[in-house]
Write a structure and sequence with these properties.
Elements (H helix, E strand, L loop, with lengths): L21 H7 L15 E10 H6 L4 H7 L1 E9 L4 H10 L12 E5 L19 E5 L7 E2 L10 H4 L3 E6 L16 E5 L7 H12 L2 H9 L14 H7 L3 H10 L16 H7 L3 H10 L13 H4 L4 H12 L14
Pfam family, one: Ank_2
GO molecular function: ATP-dependent diacylglycerol kinase activity; ubiquitin-protein transferase activity
Catalytic activity: a 1,2-diacyl-sn-glycerol + ATP = a 1,2-diacyl-sn-glycero-3-phosphate + ADP + H(+)
């Protein structure tokens, strides 16, 4: 009987994964329904999110049971059964937003026990920008997962009913409230079909219609919305060389967009732009801080995608080696 290959989890930070080609990683990380043996894959997963501070993680020597006991509730996320960690991160980040703000398109944010009128206790401190997922599937301890590898792993690989995250700047367990279940829930709107405004935004990004794109954003459409292939407006604008739209999205959108990957190939916006040899767009993305090291499902970096264009390859390679303050004047912008 064919069985699903199990990902190795014996090394902290998953450093051994660097030695394996990304395509094989995606194969090993494939959701259960992609194999010949049938498995029950739920449509939705309801996950309690708990955070652990870096100080506690180091102090307790990664002891799984002790850390589980002192973890602080953050909230609950409801995700697809085949959700990868990169997408799950977006849901968890939504837990940090004020519930009274305009709702993010495609998501519903609410208190778990709405009938009571008073939210139940949960962690009052916001997550730091630099938090990591923890793999809780091993018997004895938690293991940190490299953020650069999140798009290669599914939520079901690292947890069951609860997902644990390592907050590098978070409060100690004794400083947060752990009374009751977390109060805030983030879940997709039923069915989550694209609205007409969302479709218009993605169409505008692909065609280069800046006025339509800005109007969609003004009406409250999130720039994080993605099409069926997982492409955001930034992916589409970058691939088609629309520098004015790319610049606008970088100014108005979340930093998450920079290294967000699509579902089909694992490409970031920079991968798309480099593949299509969009010089000006590549420069905009690099200057904004897009990763030059992130690999797609084929194990290729943006530099690899630029092969065939010596000027672009040279520029991207130089930026891999250059410090953050280095000048970007060595890439000629095409008119």
């Amino acid at each position: 009987m064919v069985q699903k290959s199990k990902r190795r989890t014996s090394v902290p930070l998953l450093n051994d994964i660097q030695k394996v080609c990304a395509a094989d990683l995606r194969r090993l990380s494939a959701p259960p329904d992609s194999f010949s043996v049938p498995h029950a894959v739920p449509d939705r997963l309801r996950l309690r999110v708990n955070r652990i501070s870096l100080q506690e993680y180091d102090r307790l020597q990664y002891d799984k049971e002790r850390l589980r006991d002192i973890s602080i509730p953050v909230g609950i996320v409801v995700v697809r059964g085949d959700c990868d960690l990169e997408t799950c991160r977006l849901y968890i980040d939504r837990l940090q937003e004020d519930i009274h703000q305009a709702p993010s398109t495609g998501h519903r944010v609410h208190y778990q026990d709405e009938s009571r009128g008073v939210p139940m206790s949960s962690s009052t401190s916001r997550l730091s920008p630099h938090w990591s997922f923890l793999d809780s599937t091993s018997a004895d301890r938690f293991y940190r997962i490299d953020k650069a590898q999140e798009h290669l792993h599914f939520v079901t690989e690292i947890c069951q009913d609860e997902v644990f995250i390592l907050d590098h700047e978070g409060p100690l367990g004794s400083q947060g409230s752990t009374i009751g279940m977390p109060d805030l829930v983030v879940e997709p709107t039923a069915g989550s079909p694209l609205s007409l405004d969302e479709q218009a935004l993605l169409t505008a990004a692909s065609s280069g219609d800046l006025s339509l794109l800005t109007e969609c954003v003004r009406r409250g459409v999130s720039l994080l919305v993605r099409d069926s292939d997982g492409c955001s407006a930034l992916h589409l604008a970058a691939q088609n060389g629309h520098t004015d739209l790319v610049s606008y999205i970088l100014q108005q959108g979340s930093k998450i967009l920079l290294d967000l990957t699509d579902r089909e190939r694992g490409d970031t916006a920079l991968h798309k732009a480099a593949s299509e040899k969009q010089h000006a767009v590549c420069q905009l993305l690099v200057e904004a801080g897009a990763s030059l090291e992130k690999t797609n499902f084929q194990g290729k970096t943006p530099v690899d995608q630029a092969v065939g264009d010596s000027e672009l390859t040279s520029y991207l390679s130089s930026q891999q080696r250059a410090p953050p303050s280095a000048s970007n004047e060595d890439l000629e912008t095409a008119v």
